[in-house]
Amino acid sequence: MQTDFVHESRPGRVVFAAGARTRLLEEVDRLGLHRLIVVCTPEQVGLAEELTSPLGHRIAELHPHATMHVPVAVASKAIARSREIGADGCVAIGGGSAIGLAKGIAKDTGLPIVALPTTYAGSEMTPVWGLSDAGRKTTGRDPRVLPVTVLYDPQLTLTLPPAFSVTSGLNALAHSAEALYAPDGSPITALIAAESVRALAGALPRLVTDPRDIDARSAALYGAWLAGSVLGSTTMSLHHKLCHILGGTFDLPHAETHTAVLPHVLAVNLPAAPQARTALETALGTADPANHLFHLAKDLGAEMSLRTLGMPDNGLRTVIDQAVAAPYANPTPIAEGDLRHILSNALIGAAPTTRPAG
Hints:
With 358 residues, the chain is an alpha/beta fold. The chain is 51% helix and 11% strand.
């Protein structure tokens, strides 16, 4: 057992229940908020209007302009609007795009965020923000961007298509997998991460079989909540570094990219992280976590080829150069050959293999 560690719990309130969305007014009252900017994607305007209708005149503006990877220009417009309307809080409805935009607003204005997640992204539990500009994605930590209240309602995920449920859930699982070998992990984060992996891996096949299975949806959302909490408490490693580069440079879909890359990074990292490997073996019930996750994702219909997701064949050099140029935590040193090995396999959707000799 690890006996020398620091563990810091993040502040925040979680309301978890089927029907938790109906408690939004109660939670807004509790925070004393009166002029809210509501952010969502254009596709979720109807849902945002439905969920916030009980708030009445407290909605100062519905701002349906959230988009993937939070472009700086999009965040700047939302920040300007929140100031123009005198907003005293922000409600984020949706997945990582909506919550990411809310964080962009909070980073500059300090507005408190109330989040209603509709996917398994987990970003609602972290103080991590991300902005993209000119083909680069920049991330950072700021306690102001951590939502003050999160309402987890598994009923909000019932219409999430099975294919996206799988990749969204595996995106969350990636947070927990990397938390298990994080340099600043603790016995507490390890327990939470392992439970998250167990819950997500068990729930995803069930909700693909029956997308309306509320118990499976609840288990997946529970796992995503735990994954987000360890993402917010630990330092992510090579997997997240590569996915940020891939998303910011080539505008690849976020959850799908995490799904395709994770098994290849684990195949290289786990031999150098025996405690993490053991935890994953136990949580997944397998002696080979990397290949197990690859085949789980593929069997559930996930696309495992970065090429098919939109990465050009000549993009390997760009990703490698960016990864080498910026230091990051990782359980084992990663050379250029390791990066090429990981990315080449992920590019074509091959099964993961351990690092190349030499």
